[in-house]
Amino acid sequence: LGDKRRKQSPELLPEDYIFAHKVKNEMVRGDIVVFENEEKGIDVVKRVIGLPGEVISSADGSVLINNKVIL
Fold first, then answer.
1. Is residue 6 exposed (0-12), middle (13-18) or buried (19+ Cβ within 10 Å)?
2. What is the 3-state secondary structure (H, E, C) of the chain?
3. Which residues, at least 6 apart from 31, have a Cβ–Cβ distance to it below 8 Å?
4. CA dist., res. 45 & res. 30, Å (int)
5. Cα-atom radius of gyration of the chain, to the nearest Å?
6. 10-residue block means of pLDDT along the chain (71 residues)?
7. Entry pTM
8. Taking CA 27 as the corner, what is the angle to CA 62 and CA 38, rounded to the nearest 5 degrees?
9. pLDDT in the model for residue 8
10. Residues 6 or more apart from 6 whose CB is under 8 A from it?
11. How distant, in Å, are the alpha carbons of 6, 25, 47, 64, 66 from that of 3?
12. Residue 47: which residues within 8 A CB-CB, separation 6 or more?
């Protein structure tokens, strides 16, 4: 796999199916979150990369948390 795909692995592809359930636990980095975009009427799937109090930024094609490159 290319370097970019390894960094995002495991990943969800457009034809993948997932099962989700509601929980109210504290999220941790790497969790997958599903929520409804009410404006578009679709479900959105995202991966948690930032936690409360952290600063997320990007530079030179990399994602940084508190000015440190994440893998």
1. exposed
2. CCHHHHHCCCCCCCCCCCCCCCCCCCCCCCCEEEEEECCCCEEEEEECCCCCCCCEEEECCEEEECCEECC
3. 47, 48
4. 12
5. 14
6. 50 82 85 91 90 94 93 67
7. 0.63
8. 85
9. 52
10. none
11. 5, 32, 18, 17, 22
12. 30, 31, 32, 33
**Size of the chain, expressed as the number of residues it contains:** 71
- Look at the block and give the residue holding tokens 């936690």: 51
- Residue position matching structure tokens 């979150």: 33
d(CA 54, CA 51) in angstroms, rounded, equals: 6
